[in-house]
Amino acid sequence: MVLTNNKARNILTKKGVFFILHRMVKIRLKRFGAKKRPSYRIVVMNEREKRDGRTIAEIGFYNPIEKKNFVDIEKANEWIKKGAQPTDRVKKLLAGAEKEKEVV
């Protein structure tokens, strides 16, 4: 949606839609698990949220200790098409998941 004049921008801002359309969305890791035993969820969230803050969607998980991970590639690609930017680690996990999908 392209906003062409200030009047439309003000109307959308009052309703809260302008913020939703123009915030930076990232695909990144959210930490959970016990002390010194991390596990991560691969989530879609606002760039300005804290690491363990509110998420928009969860699209997978990653356990570095047990070397297990799962990524819903379809959901990830859908969010990337919408403009979400994956972090470096998530890019590597997505690439690995796509290779596994090709082999199977």
What is the element layout, followed by pairings?
Blueprint: H1 6-15, H2 17-22, E1 25-34, E2 37-46, E3 57-63, E4 68-71, H3 73-82, E5 85-86, H4 88-103
Parallel strand pairs: 1-5
Antiparallel strand pairs: 1-2, 2-3, 3-4
List the helices and strands in order.
Answer: HHEEEEHEH
Helix content: 40-55%
SS elements, strand count:
5
The general outline is flat
Q: Which fold name fills CATH's third level, the topology?
A: S16 Ribosomal Protein, Chain: A
Structure description:
- With 104 residues, the chain is α+β, with helices and mostly antiparallel strands.
- The protein has one domain (24-103): S16 Ribosomal Protein, Chain: A (2-Layer Sandwich).
- Helix content is 40%, strand content 32%.
- The protein has four helices and five strands.
- The protein has helices at residues 6-15, 17-22, 73-82, 88-103, and strands at 25-34, 37-46, 57-63, 68-71, 85-86.
- It has a five-stranded mixed sheet.
- Strand 3 and strand 4 form a beta hairpin.
- The chain is flat and about 35 Å long.
